[in-house]
Amino acid sequence: MQVLTMTDLRREFEQAAEDVQRLGQRPDNDTLLKLYALYKQGSEGDVQGEQPGFFDFVGTAKYEAWAQLRGVSEDDAMQRYIELVHELLS
After folding, report:
1. Residue 83 within any structural domain of the chain
2. Cα–chain-centroid distance for residue 14?
3. Within a domain: 54
4. What pLDDT digit, counting tens, does each position of 39-74 carry?
């Protein structure tokens, strides 16, 4: 695995975010949640804001997926996001 500079990592992360929009088929819900959580952790850091209400099932699932990554560095989350997108594209 190659080590990327911060600028290279950010550029590859942003490219992966664009590439994921062009997937041939929609990933399963677990993969979508993982993509969402890694993207949010990589772009914003630890989860922020109030957890959505009980009846907001999608919002709650997204919040909880992101919260599970609490403490993961933004760089690590970006790298994991890039690797997951590359897996999905291959």
Report:
1. yes
2. 11
3. yes
4. 999 999 999 888 898 899 999 999 999 999 999 999
CA distance 11 to 45: 17
Give pTM, 2 decimals.
0.88
Give the pLDDT score at 7.
Answer: 84
Q: Are 51 and 63 in contact (CB under 8 A)?
A: yes
CATH number of the domain encompassing residue 41: 1.20.80.10
Q: Domains in the chain: how many in total?
A: 1
In the prediction, which pLDDT does 79 show?
Answer: 96
Q: What share of the chain is helix, strand, coil (3-state, %, to 5)?
A: 65, 0, 35
37 domain residue, yes or no: yes
Which residues touch 38 (CB under 8 Å, ≥6 apart)?
69, 77, 78, 80, 81, 84
pLDDT at 57: 94
According to the model, what pLDDT value does residue 24 have? Answer: 85
What is the DSSP code (8-state) at residue 27?
Answer: P
